[in-house]
Amino acid sequence: MTSASTSIAPGPELLNERSIGGILVHLLSIPTGVVGAGIVYLVATNEFTKRNARNALDWHLAVLALTVLTFGSAFTYAELTGQGITNGVPLSAPIAAGGSFVISALFLVWMIITTCTFLVGFIATGKAIFGDAWRYPLTPALVERFSSQVELPGGWPIVIVGYVVFAPLVIGGVFLGPHEGAAFFATVFGLFGLILVLTPLTGVAMYLHAKRASQTDTAWEPHTAAYIGAPVLVAVLAYALSGAFTDSINPGGDAMYVFLAAFWVTSITYVIRWKTALN
Protein backbone atom coordinates (compact mmCIF):
# COMPACT_ATOMS: atom_id res chain seq x y z
CA MET A 1 0.00 0.00 0.00
CA THR A 2 1.45 3.30 -1.03
CA SER A 3 0.55 6.64 0.40
CA ALA A 4 0.20 9.54 -1.94
CA SER A 5 2.28 12.48 -0.86
CA THR A 6 0.68 15.86 -1.19
CA SER A 7 2.88 18.46 -2.81
CA ILE A 8 2.16 22.04 -1.96
CA ALA A 9 3.15 24.68 -4.47
CA PRO A 10 5.55 27.08 -2.87
CA GLY A 11 3.88 30.41 -2.24
CA PRO A 12 5.58 33.71 -1.56
CA GLU A 13 7.64 33.75 1.58
CA LEU A 14 5.74 36.70 2.94
CA LEU A 15 7.91 37.52 5.90
CA ASN A 16 10.98 37.63 3.66
CA GLU A 17 9.49 39.28 0.58
CA ARG A 18 7.16 41.88 2.06
CA SER A 19 8.32 45.23 3.35
CA ILE A 20 6.50 47.99 5.16
CA GLY A 21 7.57 50.49 2.52
CA GLY A 22 6.25 48.28 -0.27
CA ILE A 23 2.87 48.12 1.44
CA LEU A 24 2.51 51.73 2.55
CA VAL A 25 3.80 53.37 -0.63
CA HIS A 26 0.39 52.96 -2.25
CA LEU A 27 -1.38 54.74 0.60
CA LEU A 28 1.32 57.41 0.77
CA SER A 29 1.07 58.17 -2.92
CA ILE A 30 -2.70 58.76 -2.82
CA PRO A 31 -2.33 62.27 -1.31
CA THR A 32 1.24 62.93 -2.47
CA GLY A 33 1.06 61.58 -6.03
CA VAL A 34 4.22 61.51 -8.11
CA VAL A 35 6.29 63.14 -5.36
CA GLY A 36 5.59 60.50 -2.70
CA ALA A 37 5.86 57.50 -5.01
CA GLY A 38 8.93 58.95 -6.71
CA ILE A 39 10.78 59.60 -3.47
CA VAL A 40 10.10 56.07 -2.21
CA TYR A 41 11.24 54.66 -5.55
CA LEU A 42 14.47 56.66 -5.46
CA VAL A 43 15.47 55.84 -1.88
CA ALA A 44 14.23 52.23 -1.74
CA THR A 45 16.83 49.49 -1.43
CA ASN A 46 14.39 46.61 -0.90
CA GLU A 47 13.33 45.07 -4.22
CA PHE A 48 9.72 44.53 -3.11
CA THR A 49 9.44 48.18 -2.07
CA LYS A 50 10.98 49.34 -5.33
CA ARG A 51 8.60 47.26 -7.47
CA ASN A 52 5.54 48.55 -5.63
CA ALA A 53 6.80 52.14 -5.75
CA ARG A 54 7.45 51.77 -9.48
CA ASN A 55 3.90 50.56 -10.07
CA ALA A 56 2.44 53.42 -8.03
CA LEU A 57 4.69 55.91 -9.80
CA ASP A 58 3.57 54.69 -13.22
CA TRP A 59 -0.06 55.33 -12.27
CA HIS A 60 0.55 58.76 -10.79
CA LEU A 61 2.69 59.83 -13.74
CA ALA A 62 -0.23 58.98 -16.00
CA VAL A 63 -2.61 60.90 -13.71
CA LEU A 64 -0.22 63.86 -13.69
CA ALA A 65 -0.05 63.85 -17.49
CA LEU A 66 -3.85 63.79 -17.68
CA THR A 67 -4.05 66.61 -15.12
CA VAL A 68 -1.64 68.79 -17.08
CA LEU A 69 -3.51 68.07 -20.31
CA THR A 70 -6.91 68.82 -18.75
CA PHE A 71 -6.08 72.04 -16.93
CA GLY A 72 -3.67 73.20 -19.62
CA SER A 73 -6.42 72.77 -22.20
CA ALA A 74 -8.90 74.60 -19.97
CA PHE A 75 -6.46 77.48 -19.48
CA THR A 76 -5.76 77.69 -23.22
CA TYR A 77 -9.48 77.56 -24.00
CA ALA A 78 -10.16 80.38 -21.54
CA GLU A 79 -7.44 82.52 -23.11
CA LEU A 80 -8.69 81.88 -26.65
CA THR A 81 -12.30 82.68 -25.78
CA GLY A 82 -11.60 85.97 -24.01
CA GLN A 83 -12.17 84.59 -20.50
CA GLY A 84 -8.54 84.54 -19.41
CA ILE A 85 -6.03 87.07 -18.20
CA THR A 86 -4.77 88.10 -21.63
CA ASN A 87 -6.52 89.80 -24.52
CA GLY A 88 -6.24 87.10 -27.13
CA VAL A 89 -8.14 86.85 -30.38
CA PRO A 90 -11.40 85.00 -29.60
CA LEU A 91 -12.26 81.82 -31.44
CA SER A 92 -15.23 81.50 -33.73
CA ALA A 93 -18.46 80.18 -32.23
CA PRO A 94 -18.31 76.66 -33.78
CA ILE A 95 -14.68 76.13 -32.71
CA ALA A 96 -15.43 77.48 -29.24
CA ALA A 97 -18.39 75.08 -28.92
CA GLY A 98 -16.24 72.14 -29.98
CA GLY A 99 -13.52 73.17 -27.57
CA SER A 100 -16.05 73.41 -24.76
CA PHE A 101 -17.19 69.84 -25.45
CA VAL A 102 -13.60 68.55 -25.44
CA ILE A 103 -12.79 70.37 -22.19
CA SER A 104 -15.92 68.97 -20.54
CA ALA A 105 -15.00 65.44 -21.65
CA LEU A 106 -11.46 65.86 -20.33
CA PHE A 107 -12.73 67.03 -16.96
CA LEU A 108 -15.11 64.06 -16.77
CA VAL A 109 -12.30 61.60 -17.50
CA TRP A 110 -10.02 63.41 -15.05
CA MET A 111 -12.59 63.20 -12.24
CA ILE A 112 -13.16 59.49 -12.89
CA ILE A 113 -9.44 58.71 -12.91
CA THR A 114 -8.82 60.84 -9.82
CA THR A 115 -11.57 58.97 -7.98
CA CYS A 116 -10.14 55.64 -9.14
CA THR A 117 -6.81 56.63 -7.58
CA PHE A 118 -8.26 55.85 -4.16
CA LEU A 119 -9.67 52.52 -5.32
CA VAL A 120 -6.54 51.23 -7.05
CA GLY A 121 -4.39 52.48 -4.17
CA PHE A 122 -6.34 50.41 -1.66
CA ILE A 123 -6.33 47.38 -3.97
CA ALA A 124 -2.57 47.64 -4.46
CA THR A 125 -2.10 47.92 -0.69
CA GLY A 126 -4.11 44.76 -0.13
CA LYS A 127 -2.16 42.93 -2.82
CA ALA A 128 1.13 44.07 -1.29
CA ILE A 129 0.09 42.76 2.13
CA PHE A 130 -0.07 39.29 0.56
CA GLY A 131 3.28 39.68 -1.17
CA ASP A 132 2.18 40.77 -4.64
CA ALA A 133 3.52 43.85 -6.46
CA TRP A 134 0.31 44.59 -8.36
CA ARG A 135 0.43 46.47 -11.64
CA TYR A 136 -2.11 49.28 -11.76
CA PRO A 137 -4.58 48.88 -14.64
CA LEU A 138 -4.19 50.71 -17.96
CA THR A 139 -0.84 52.25 -17.02
CA PRO A 140 2.18 52.18 -19.34
CA ALA A 141 5.44 50.96 -17.82
CA LEU A 142 7.00 54.42 -17.98
CA VAL A 143 9.48 54.01 -15.13
CA GLU A 144 10.76 50.65 -16.31
CA ARG A 145 11.04 51.90 -19.87
CA PHE A 146 12.76 55.22 -19.29
CA SER A 147 14.52 55.03 -15.91
CA SER A 148 17.69 53.57 -17.42
CA GLN A 149 17.77 56.36 -20.01
CA VAL A 150 17.50 59.20 -17.51
CA GLU A 151 20.94 60.24 -16.36
CA LEU A 152 21.73 63.39 -14.43
CA PRO A 153 24.97 64.93 -15.71
CA GLY A 154 27.17 65.31 -12.66
CA GLY A 155 24.88 63.23 -10.50
CA TRP A 156 22.50 64.29 -7.75
CA PRO A 157 24.38 67.51 -6.84
CA ILE A 158 22.85 69.00 -9.99
CA VAL A 159 19.45 68.86 -8.27
CA ILE A 160 20.84 70.59 -5.17
CA VAL A 161 22.48 73.30 -7.29
CA GLY A 162 19.17 73.72 -9.12
CA TYR A 163 17.43 74.31 -5.81
CA VAL A 164 20.06 76.87 -4.79
CA VAL A 165 19.41 78.80 -8.02
CA PHE A 166 15.64 78.35 -8.32
CA ALA A 167 14.50 78.92 -4.72
CA PRO A 168 15.52 82.60 -4.39
CA LEU A 169 13.98 83.39 -7.77
CA VAL A 170 10.62 82.01 -6.66
CA ILE A 171 10.69 83.54 -3.18
CA GLY A 172 11.78 86.86 -4.65
CA GLY A 173 8.89 86.69 -7.08
CA VAL A 174 6.47 86.06 -4.21
CA PHE A 175 7.55 89.10 -2.19
CA LEU A 176 8.78 91.49 -4.89
CA GLY A 177 7.00 90.40 -8.05
CA PRO A 178 3.65 91.53 -9.48
CA HIS A 179 0.43 90.47 -7.79
CA GLU A 180 -1.68 90.17 -10.90
CA GLY A 181 -1.44 88.95 -14.46
CA ALA A 182 0.40 86.03 -15.99
CA ALA A 183 3.59 86.70 -14.02
CA PHE A 184 1.67 86.31 -10.75
CA PHE A 185 0.23 82.96 -11.82
CA ALA A 186 3.69 81.82 -12.91
CA THR A 187 5.02 82.75 -9.46
CA VAL A 188 2.22 80.83 -7.74
CA PHE A 189 2.88 77.72 -9.81
CA GLY A 190 6.59 78.12 -9.16
CA LEU A 191 5.98 78.32 -5.41
CA PHE A 192 3.87 75.16 -5.43
CA GLY A 193 6.52 73.41 -7.51
CA LEU A 194 9.23 74.55 -5.11
CA ILE A 195 7.38 73.35 -2.01
CA LEU A 196 5.82 70.15 -3.34
CA VAL A 197 8.42 68.92 -5.83
CA LEU A 198 11.85 70.53 -5.80
CA THR A 199 12.32 70.76 -2.03
CA PRO A 200 11.51 67.07 -1.36
CA LEU A 201 13.57 66.05 -4.39
CA THR A 202 16.52 68.08 -3.11
CA GLY A 203 16.27 66.30 0.24
CA VAL A 204 16.34 62.96 -1.57
CA ALA A 205 19.29 64.17 -3.65
CA MET A 206 21.20 65.02 -0.48
CA TYR A 207 20.43 61.61 0.99
CA LEU A 208 21.47 59.66 -2.10
CA HIS A 209 24.58 61.72 -2.74
CA ALA A 210 25.64 61.58 0.91
CA LYS A 211 25.12 57.82 0.90
CA ARG A 212 27.31 57.48 -2.17
CA ALA A 213 29.94 59.83 -0.74
CA SER A 214 30.14 57.87 2.50
CA GLN A 215 30.87 54.69 0.51
CA THR A 216 33.85 56.21 -1.29
CA ASP A 217 37.31 56.95 0.00
CA THR A 218 36.72 60.68 0.37
CA ALA A 219 37.44 62.28 3.72
CA TRP A 220 34.07 64.03 3.68
CA GLU A 221 31.21 62.11 5.28
CA PRO A 222 28.14 64.36 5.09
CA HIS A 223 25.50 63.98 7.79
CA THR A 224 22.24 64.30 5.90
CA ALA A 225 20.18 64.48 9.08
CA ALA A 226 21.90 67.74 10.02
CA TYR A 227 21.41 69.35 6.61
CA ILE A 228 17.71 68.48 6.55
CA GLY A 229 16.95 68.47 10.27
CA ALA A 230 18.34 71.93 11.00
CA PRO A 231 15.86 73.72 8.69
CA VAL A 232 13.01 71.72 10.23
CA LEU A 233 14.03 72.79 13.74
CA VAL A 234 14.37 76.41 12.63
CA ALA A 235 10.91 76.27 11.05
CA VAL A 236 9.38 74.83 14.23
CA LEU A 237 11.00 77.61 16.25
CA ALA A 238 9.74 80.22 13.77
CA TYR A 239 6.22 78.82 14.04
CA ALA A 240 6.31 79.05 17.83
CA LEU A 241 7.73 82.58 17.85
CA SER A 242 5.34 83.79 15.16
CA GLY A 243 2.34 82.56 17.11
CA ALA A 244 3.57 83.89 20.45
CA PHE A 245 5.12 87.26 19.63
CA THR A 246 3.53 88.50 16.41
CA ASP A 247 0.05 89.19 15.12
CA SER A 248 0.52 86.97 12.10
CA ILE A 249 -2.67 85.37 10.85
CA ASN A 250 -0.72 82.49 9.31
CA PRO A 251 2.16 81.24 11.49
CA GLY A 252 2.30 78.08 9.39
CA GLY A 253 2.99 80.11 6.27
CA ASP A 254 5.68 82.08 8.08
CA ALA A 255 7.30 78.83 9.21
CA MET A 256 7.22 77.49 5.64
CA TYR A 257 9.08 80.51 4.29
CA VAL A 258 11.61 80.26 7.12
CA PHE A 259 12.10 76.58 6.34
CA LEU A 260 12.68 77.31 2.65
CA ALA A 261 15.22 79.99 3.53
CA ALA A 262 17.01 77.75 6.04
CA PHE A 263 17.01 74.81 3.64
CA TRP A 264 18.43 77.08 0.96
CA VAL A 265 21.30 77.98 3.30
CA THR A 266 22.01 74.34 4.15
CA SER A 267 21.86 73.46 0.45
CA ILE A 268 24.49 76.10 -0.30
CA THR A 269 26.58 74.77 2.58
CA TYR A 270 26.26 71.23 1.24
CA VAL A 271 27.36 72.25 -2.26
CA ILE A 272 30.33 74.23 -0.90
CA ARG A 273 31.42 71.33 1.32
CA TRP A 274 31.06 68.93 -1.61
CA LYS A 275 33.13 71.12 -3.93
CA THR A 276 35.75 71.63 -1.21
CA ALA A 277 36.02 67.88 -0.67
CA LEU A 278 36.66 67.36 -4.38
CA ASN A 279 39.66 69.72 -4.36
TrEMBL record:
Its main location: membrane. Coiled coil: none annotated. PROSITE patterns: MOTA. It is found in: Membrane. It comes from the Archaea. The keyword Chaperone does not apply. Pfam families: MamF_MmsF (PF09685). The keyword Membrane applies. The chain crosses the membrane at residues 20-44, 56-78, 98-125, 155-176, 182-204, 225-243, 255-272. This is Acyltransferase. It comes from Haloferax mediterranei (strain ATCC 33500 / DSM 1411 / JCM 8866 / NBRC 14739 / NCIMB 2177 / R-4).
